[in-house]
Predict the structure.
Amino acid sequence: MNICGKRMYALLEKLNFERLSTFEGEQKAAAILKKEIEELGLTPVIETFKAPRYTIKTAKLEVTEPFYKEYEVNGYGFAGNDAANGIEADFVYLEAFEPIDLVDVKGKIVFVANGLRPNDFKILLEAGVLGAITTSGNFRDTAETADLDQRMLRPIHIEHGKLPTVCMRMKEAMEMVASKPGKVKLTLSQEEGEADSQNVMVEIPGTEYPDEVIVYTAHYDSVVFSHGMFDNATGTATILEVLRYYKENPPKRTLRFIWCGSEERGLLGSKHYVAAHEEELEKIRLCINVDMTGPIFGRDYALVTAEESLCSVITFLYKELGHPMTVMQEICSSDSIPFADKGIPSVNFLRRGANNSYQIHCRHDVIDIISADALERTAKFIVAFSNRVIESKFFPIDKTMPEIMVDKINKYLRKKL
């Protein structure tokens, strides 16, 4: 069976809707993947796990002195309900988080012209701030051209406490700060909890070395407002096509395919897998992750989270096959990280879009920028690389993780600051 870009593109068309973690769209996408796998004569497994879920009930920002004006805002998920009845306080534009900037912020509501990193919340809480306002998008955005961000705080943000926080459009924020508000009122109420997300999994047993396992991962969820065609319906379609290939070409080694849910919430699907299947990790020799392929304009990359020698192997292969790409020893902010954290060598295949030719995490992540030909070329290279590993007489990749990669993984997971 040949790799078929048109078939991959057809799956993108089926997944062309919002697939937000824990909501109906993600469940619908999992059902589509389940059906596709079953039509190959294979039996998928749906494994559920809990993921954070919030619903904003009220989010309001009002300038109350020396004039009155209300601005459209979105609340940060898991920022709590301390402002459910509204908090009115003096307004301060906070330029930075240096001690001199924090001299007079206690008991006030601060504005920050960017997002907030986890440590920023700690600084604001220790400074006695009552609430925070951040910005969404750039100064050119309007309600007609861009959606107002919906942001969710993760446990690392709120480990020192919760701070009512909202975001507003950059253009309106510039207008507000320039008008020199004296007092503002911030109101934020929400429901916070958990709901089911799911991984979709299937396995093809190896014909000669069944205890040597290669895992293929890709996430199928998207963010709010986004149909996530580039990020990451493309990776979803890619590993499904790889599955089709090996269904018709039985591999010598066991191949396990995992479509991960809730990646956009913090790699939750892959983190769940390695935690729930810890006894199986010893047999997993390699993780091949695919996150974002197929843009018309772009370049293929292989980010190798393993010994540098594997970079040389992939470089030799792409030159042998005449497949232009860039190979780097690097981590990738995707579902390979939890596997690499367990010492499993990982290769992340992706096609980075050319500047100004794509957008992700917004309404503009659309199918129009994707090419069936580009999807097919990348998938063919992934299969070519996979075949070298799968058909080897002896597994060619050492199960070691160099210290430089361990350090990067630890920093990414904030084990090391």
The first helix runs from residue 5 to 14. The domain at 67-181 is CATH 3.50.30.30 (Glucose Oxidase; domain 1).
